[in-house]
Amino acid sequence: MAQEYVILVDENDHEIGRAEKLQAHHEGLLHRAFSIFIFNQAGDMLIHQRALSKYHSGALWTNACCSHPRPGENILDAAHRRLKEELGFDCPLRYKTYFIYKVKFDEDGLFEHEFDHVFFGFFDGVIHPNPEEVASIAWIPVKQLHDEIKQNPQKYTAWFKIALEKIVW
Questions:
Q1: For the residues 130-159, what does the mean pLDDT come to?
Q2: Residue 155 belongs to domain with CATH number
């Protein structure tokens, strides 16, 4: 498997270098990322359960798609690429906002330290999840999701809970 690289950035999202993806997560280096939130026409949010084999946060529920642009790749192009790779569909995306967060995972000592660009989209078609990335998918009303996260926060990824507080609730 080829090494994957992420784009290192400062707190203004200016590119300052690149690092191998796992190195960036081991060292807690700030890097560019994106999160995609997909809704259907009924207003439900698409969430997915991460594959058990993911290098961290396996089996936890999270937003439709999240990842990193490759060095030299436009972030919107990367978002469309990953939607197709992870969920087998694409749709128009609209830039919403960004946030910076840093979380250390106790189970493996890895960090997520990301300058996270947030995109929203709408989709009502057929979804074909990639089993290497996604264990399960669900459409859930936003109010029900909010209640579920309050009752069972341990079932959801750290960045998803942060993003929801910043952009949805």
A1: 95
A2: 3.90.79.10
